[in-house]
Design a protein that fits this description.
The complex is a heterodimer of chains A (425) and B (414). Chain A is α+β, with helices and mostly antiparallel strands and 425 residues long. Helix content of chain A is 43%, strand content 18%. Chain B is of the alpha+beta class and 414 residues long. Chain B folds into two domains: 203 residues, Metalloenzyme, LuxS/M16 peptidase-like (Cytochrome Bc1 Complex, Chain A, domain 1, 2-Layer Sandwich); 181 residues, Metalloenzyme, LuxS/M16 peptidase-like (Cytochrome Bc1 Complex, Chain A, domain 1, 2-Layer Sandwich). In chain B, the strands form two sheets. Chain B has a six-stranded mixed beta sheet with strand order 1-2-6-3-5-4, with helices on both faces. A five-stranded mixed beta sheet of chain B has the order 7-11-8-10-9, with helices on both faces. In chain B, a hairpin with a 7-residue loop joins β9 and β10. The chains are: A alpha+beta (425), B alpha+beta (414). The interface between A and B is large, with 76 and 80 residues.
Amino acid sequence: MLQRNIQPEFKPMQALNLVTPQCYKAECGTPIHILPVQDQEVVKIDFIFNAGEYFSEHPIVALSTLKMLQEGSSSRTSEEIAEKLDFLGAYLFCSMTKDYSTISLCCLEKHAKEAFEIVSDFILHPTFPEDKLAIHKSNRFEQFKIDSERVEIRSQRLLANTLFGSQHPYGKIMESTDFEYLTRENLISFHKENFTAEKTKIFVCANLQSAKAKDLLETIKHIQLPKSGKVQIPQYKIITSNSHSLRVPKEKAVQTALKIGKVMVNRNHPDFIKLQVVNTILGGYFGSRLMTTVREEKGYTYGIGSAIISLKESGYFIISSQVGKEVHEKALEAIFQELKRLRTELVSEEELNIVKTYMLSSLARSFDGAMATSEMLLDTVLYNLDFKDYYNQMWNTTNNIQPKEIQKLANTYLNEDSMYEVAVG
Amino acid sequence: MIQFETFELENGLRFYVNIDKTTPFVAVNTLYNVGSKDEDPNKTGFAHLFEHLMFGGSKNIPDYDTPLQKVGGDNNAFTTTDITNYYVTLPHYNLETAFWLESDRMLELAFSTKSLETQRNVVCEEFKQRYLNKPYGDLMLLARPLTYKVHPYQWPTIGKELSHIENATMEDVKSFFYSHYAPNNAIITISGNVDMKTVKELAEKWYGDIPCRNVAIRNLPQEPVQTEKRTLTVERNVPASNLYMAFHMCSQRDADFYATDLISDILSNGKSTRLNQNLVEQQKLFSSIDACISGEIEPGTFMISGKINPNISIDEAEKAVKCELQKIIDGTVSEYELQKVKNRYESAAVFGELDILSKARAIAYYANLGDVNLVNTRLKEYDKVTLADIQRVASSMFADTNCSTVYYLSNNQK
């Protein structure tokens, strides 16, 4: 008779089996990190530039510089670039974090070399034409107005501002008046300073067995990014707000967007990996305490989660949710209760084991395929960590952490009285 | 090329298996052939509410998530107008836990009152977060009933209104389960590091004794042919006005589906395509605009939606869109342009099916559609489309009398 009420036998997670990424230097000195794709004729190339908002006097300039690169090079117009890349079936994604600008190119192997040549051309020789800049500026302003109406985005910006202050690039809030800084001169000068050999890293996922991919890698090595000399990282003072609570009412809102957080250590700190375990217990997975209490038991929200975000020069902890307007206070109370419980009660072995298994399996999943692995490789390269050492250490630390240590970390880093809250709606 | 094998149990449950030894994981996808189109017009949002309840415990297993987390598994689910789809990925050596969990909730749910109460609230908050508390969030709530007068595509999967979800009773839930959740109304696909022998043994062991059920016979009301232009004007507190146009199109099972999809790509897939180049970059009428197809199984909609720039009247914007549609009817698409969107489709299809979960989902989707081989052959179908097809389909689809337009006006600037 089938025992439907008993879980079938299962095995613990098997240890990681990491690939060894290859790394070459391009002729100009820029590092090229390579991960092997198995059995598929696809290529992904990521250009990572040390060119986030952090490096711009006016943060608005950074993203516009990145987006405007494809609007014309000294050998092709905006229309020619778009036409050619679309015809090759190449997909281009531009994204930015506070620290980095990224251009990702996804393409079938058979067209990758041609697509790379077009992209590297506009990275090296962009023209930033005035007419295209005017269109970009106007469209970005329209999007800015819509984003400003979204409680999710507004609350996120306000929390960053509370934690880092208006003078710090991590805390500055973009205003409509900042659009006047979107001039061709500012873009040219931001490009010149930041899209250089020393500030660039290239990541390639390709099938190394294929002749076409080998040819592509040779081509990439010849990229001639301009040299800028030693890279200076400007330093800013973090000035956290005096007030722990900010409420921004919004008429007609049916929900309140909640953000609770504080400044936190980043990936280079020895406690960072352990803190990820503490965070996962609290709000880092579907079975977390916050999801269980605030969503599954009380039904206050569709979703709630927490995270520790690593930035190059700092980091922060954040709890994020949208809750029914009428239960806003009750939800806050429940959240703070969970923070307190983390400090005052030892986590049970059973709960900790579930969290460990969840984290180890997510970690293993993150290395399933070259595309996924490249994201993980990026995190170590950008923080000057060794890929294999760091993730093996992450595996072992997560696997071995004990309840007492969790409690101690919660007391050191996540005391509820040290939190800042923002509510919009 | 995705290779797969298939077999069927006596109770009618179908399995498709794709073996991929390059990964230590396996994906198990369970598709139930039930969506919001199967709902009573007075009890909408049910298929989706039910998806939430499927995580509230089953007959022999009080909690779905914890045992899965213990074996390193991850899961989620989604509901569309056509299907309800559940998926799990886990290490290949713990595959049996997925069979154990998924089979028990196919057998019978726990039907817990507490779970129903909570999930009603959770879904109401989801409704607010996605549709009410966000600029332009209610656009599809307005557009669907304008486009469909009879067919159940007239409501979105979240439901027509909050009250339908608030009033859901346990009786409703039970009857929904027994009329739609059954081995003979489901497809299971598996992709990853497995072998056929193990999969067949596990399938028989865990699903073999689940009885075949009387599945409600689907008898959807047919949407009558639209004969006049439909419009709706609303005013909202949003920064920019939005123009939305929807045209009835053919079913995904129709031979013209591929040409229809490529028309949407010719208009707006990629920076170089027509709507972006002509209406955003050159004429500067819109700050952004997109054309896409709803991708539904029954005859769906071809949609165009764009945010209009300040000081541009919505009439002028609409005229310009119609002019672009007329150009397609007039045969201005070139061989080069058609090849371009075919190339883009090929690339997107390859990238879209690299990982095991995407493969498992795609196989299940096309099996449910009626021709599982489309998972591999559809590229050829796209390739066959000619300029004459593009022109013919555009001519019959882009008629004023086939169009429903929502003028979503900003009250800051009309």
